[in-house]
Amino acid sequence: MTVSGNLVAISRSDKAEYPADAPFHPQDQFPEYKFSEFSSEKNYIYNAVRQSFYLLGLDKENYGTKNWNPLKEFIHKGDTVLLKPNLVKEFHPRDKNGWEYILTHGSVIRAVADYVFLALEGEGKVILGDAPQTDSSFTTIVKLLKLQEITDYYKSKDLDFSLLDFRKEEWENKNDVIVKRTKLTGDPYGYFAFDLAEKSEFHSHSGVGNYYGADYDSDEVNSHHNGHKNEYLITGAAIKCDVYFNIAKLKTHKKAGVTINLKNLVGVNGDKNWLPHHTEGDPTSGGDQFPEIKISQKAENSSVHLLKKLALGIPFIGPKIMQLARPIGKKIFGDTENIIRSGNWYGNDTVWRMCLDLNKLVLYGHNNGTLKEDTLANRKRYLCLVDGFIAGEGRGPMNPDPFDASLCIFGTNPVAVDAVGATLMGFDINKIPIIPNAFKVKHYKLVGFCKDEILCQSNVPDWSKKIFDIEKESVYSFKPHFGWTGHIEKTGAADVKVNTTVS
C-alpha cells in the first residue's frame, strides 16, 4: 500500500499523561515488539503512537501479528534516519515543570524510535538531533527528557543510535542579554550552505535590508538575504540522512501562529542568524515588527539599535550596559510578554517565508550543497508525528499554558499534518500564513494536493473525515498568543478541553 501525503492519522489517547520511568518501555506486550523489557506503569504515549501508524493503514495485512512493520514502506534496511524533535528550550518562566508542554517528550521519541529500528531490521542508524535556542542548555534538556537513558538502552542492544546538538555555539543569557558565547563541536556531519536565490519565498519581498535575525548583528542576516541571494546554513545530518522524521510539539507561536512541523525545521540550522525572524518597521514601511509605529516605538527602536552597537562593539562592557538597560526599558516601553513587538503578531510576513524555505532545503537538498531537480518525485523520504498529548496554548512557544489535548497526529506530509493540527486546535488554517502559503509554493513544491483533499483517519469518529468537514463544535479551543487573538480562531470551536468520544 502506498500512503498518500494527504492522509493524516489522529490518535487520541485515554489520558494526557507522560510516563516517568525511562527509557519508557511499553507496558503492553505487542506482538511486533522485539525487545524483552516492559514497564510496570501504563504507557499511554507508546500505545497512541502505535495506534497512529495503524490508523494510517500501514502494513495493514500484518497488523496484530509479530510481522507487523508499519514503517517499512518508508524506511529501508540500512538507512540513516534523522529523528528531529522540538528541543527548543528547557526553561519555562512560570512553571518549573513547564518543559513538558514546551519540548517533545522523551517517551514519544522512544516509541517512534522502536518502530524505526523495526523497519531498519538491525542495519542502518538513527540520529536524534536538534539545534535548540542558542541560549538553551542542551545538557539540561537531555536530563529532563531522559534522552541519555534512551541512548544507552539502544546501545545496550547493539543498535546504532546517536544524540547530537547541531549548534555551533551555546550562549549564556542573563536578564535577556547574551553575556557569554561558548563554541561547540557542532554536527559531525558538517553543514551545507544553500542559496535559494530567486526560488526563495523571500524573492521580491519588500523587507530586503531590514530583516532581523537571532542576534544583535542584523547586518549578518541581511548579508544572506539581500534581494539577490537567500542563503541558509543547514546541518549535514538533515541533508545526508535517507529519511527525515519530524517529531514536533503542538503549540501556539508568537510569530507564526502555530509551531508544529513546518516551524520545527528552524532546528536544522547551523547558524540561526541566517534566518530572518521579522522585518523592522510597520506595514506602512514594508515592515512587520509592529502593527503600527508610534512615537514610543520609534524611541524604543533608536535606543535598541544604539545598545546593540555597544554590545557588539565593546566586549564585556557593552553587554553589561545592555543588561542594566533591559529592566529600565521594560518599565518604559513594556514587557514583550504583554505587548506586541518583534513581529510577534498575526501580521508577521517574514517568518513563514523562512520556514517554508527550510522545508524546501530538507526535502530537496543534495549532500553536495546543490538542489535536486524541482519535481515532487525528488523529495526526501519524510515522516512527521506530533506530540500533542500535553500541548501549549497562549504565549507560545516559550511561555505557554498547558493544554491536555491527548493527541498524537501522524502523516507523511508536514503541510497536511500541520493543517490538521491547527484545525484541531480550533484555528482557521486559512488565517495562519505558513499553512495556506505552503500550498502556494511555486519552486520546490511541498505538496501535490489541495487543502480540501486532506483526509483524516481517527479513533474519534467526528474527526474521521475530510479536513473541512470536521465540525467546529468537535474540535478544541486553544487560546492563541495574544498577538493573534481575534484573528485565527474558528467561531464556534468548543470551549471545553475534551468534548468528543473515542471509539
What descriptors fit this protein?
503 residues; alpha/beta; nine-stranded mixed β-sheet; two-stranded antiparallel sheet; 11 helices; 15 strands; 25% helix; globular
Any chance you could write out the topology, listing elements then pairs?
Layout: E1 7-12, H1 44-55, E2 80-85, H2 106-120, E3 125-130, H3 138-145, H4 147-156, E4 161-165, E5 169-174, E6 177-183, E7 191-195, E8 211-212, H5 218-224, E9 231-235, H6 236-240, E10 243-253, E11 257-259, E12 278-279, H7 295-313, H8 317-333, H9 351-364, E13 381-395, E14 399-411, H10 414-424, H11 434-440, E15 455-458
Parallel strand pairs: 1-15, 2-3, 2-10, 3-4, 10-13
Antiparallel strand pairs: 1-14, 5-6, 7-9, 8-12, 10-11, 13-14
Helix pairs in contact: 1-2, 7-8
Structure description:
With 503 residues, the chain is an alpha/beta fold. Helices cover 25% and strands 19% of the residues. It has one domain (7-291, 340-474). It has helices at 44-55, 106-120, 138-145, 147-156, 218-224, 236-240, 295-313, 317-333, 351-364, 414-424, 434-440, and strands at residues 7-12, 80-85, 125-130, 161-165, 169-174, 177-183, 191-195, 211-212, 231-235, 243-253, 257-259, 278-279, 381-395, 399-411, 455-458. Strands 1, 2, 3, 4, 10, 11, 13, 14 and 15 form a nine-stranded mixed β-sheet that branches. α1 crosses α2 and α7 (295-313) runs antiparallel to α8. The two termini are 25 Å apart. The model is unreliable at 495-503 (pLDDT under 50).
